[in-house]
Amino acid sequence: MDSTDLSVLRTCLQWLEAGRRVALATVVQTWGSSPRPPGAWLAMRDDGQVVGSVSGGCVEDDLIARIRTDILPRETPEIVTYGVTKEEAARFGLPCGGTLRLVVEPRPDLAGLHALLSRIEQKTMTIRELDIDSGKFELLDASRGDTFGFDGDARIMRSFYGPRWRMVLIGAGQLSTYVAQIALGADYEVMVVDPREEFAEGIGIPGVDFRTTMPDDTIVEAGIDNHTAIIALTHDPKLDDMALLEALKSPAFYIGALGSRVNTAKRKERLALFDLTPEEIGRLHGPVGLYIGARTPPEMAISILAEVTAAKYAVPFMQKRELSEDELESRRTSINAMSTA
C-alpha cells in the first residue's frame, strides 16, 4: 500500500471516529492510460472534503458531486464508470479514450478499517474482500504473489494491502539512509543489514528492519523472492561481495552494488572465482543507479530508486551509460543558456 493510500485510510478513520459520514472510492478497472492503478483510494467527507485521488484529477469534480447527491445517502456500494464513450472520455479528460471504473462505499465499516490499518502497520499482507451487494468485507491473509481483483459478475472486490515489494540494503551509511527513506515512500518493506560496530545503532528510520547479522547469512534466511531488490552499498568488498554471492543465486528482481565501472569489473572478476555462472554474474547492476549526473547522496538515492523502479516494471534502462565529456559540456552549455535567458 503506497503512502498516499495509507494517508487516505488514516484520514478516513479520523473522520469516521468524529462521527462524520464518509464515502470510500476505489479504482477497480482501467482501460487505456490511467494515472492511478486499481486499488487506489479517494475518501470524501459529508461536507465535501476530499483526500486521495482516483484519476489524477480528471473525474474528481464529477465524482464528488455524484457522491454527495446520489451515493452518500445509500446503504450499499455503487459501481461508477467513466469514459464509456469517446465523448465522455473527452469530457472528463481521460487520456487516450480511457475508461475508469470505481466502487464507492457510502458506509465503510469503522471497526473493519481499524483492523486493516493494524494489519498494515504490522506489515501483514492482507486481502480485503468486499461484497458489493451487502457492503460487508472480510480481511484475509495474502502473499506477495496476490494482486488486486474485481469480479463484476460476482460483485466481489479483492484489494491487496501490505508491503508486496521488499528492499534489502547492505550497509547503514548515509546513502542507505536516503535510499531507505525513498523506498519506504514507494511502498517497499525495507531491511538494512550491517554487522560493523560503528553502525550498531542503525539508521534511525521508523519502519526499517535493521539487522547486525552477516549479510550473506541474512539473505539466505530472509526468504528472498522475485518481489525483492538487494543493493550492496557498503563499498567494502568483504561485506558487499559476500552478500552478492547469495543474492545473485536468488530470484530477486534487482541486484545492484555501489562502485565505479572499474571497481564493478574487478568485482565481477572476483565473483567469477566462486560458484556463480556467467548468467548469474550478468544479473548484477553496477554501477548502481541510472546515470542522471547525481553527485550528492540524496541525488544518488533517487537514481538508484529510478533504476529499481524500471527493473520492477521491466522498462529498458535508457540512461545507463555515462556521457562523454563533449556531451556533458554541451549539456552544461544548454543549461547555463536556459538559466540566463
Plain-language structure description:
This protein has 341 residues and is of the alpha/beta class. It folds into two domains: 159 residues, no CATH class; 148 residues, 3-Layer(aba) Sandwich (Rossmann fold). 36% of the residues lie in helices and 22% in strands. It is built from eleven helices and 15 strands. The strands form three sheets. Strands 12-11-10-13-14-15 form a six-stranded parallel sheet, sandwiched between helices. A five-stranded antiparallel sheet has the order 3-2-1-5-4. It has a four-stranded antiparallel sheet with strand order 7-6-9-8, covered by helices on one side. A hairpin with a 4-residue loop joins strand 8 and strand 9. Helix 6 runs parallel beside helix 7. The longest helix has 16 residues. The two termini are 43 Å apart. The C terminus is likely disordered.
How would you briefly describe this protein structure?
The protein has 341 residues and is α/β, with parallel strands linked by helices.
List the helices and strands and how they pair.
Elements: H1 3-17, E1 22-31, E2 41-45, E3 50-52, H2 60-71, E4 78-82, H3 86-92, E5 99-105, H4 110-121, E6 126-131, E7 137-141, E8 149-151, E9 156-161, E10 165-170, H5 174-185, E11 188-193, E12 209-211, H6 215-221, E13 228-232, H7 237-247, E14 254-257, H8 261-271, H9 278-281, E15 284-285, H10 297-312, H11 325-340
Parallel strand pairs: 10-11, 10-13, 11-12, 13-14, 14-15
Antiparallel strand pairs: 1-2, 1-5, 2-3, 4-5, 6-7, 6-9, 8-9
Helix pairs in contact: 1-4, 5-10, 6-7
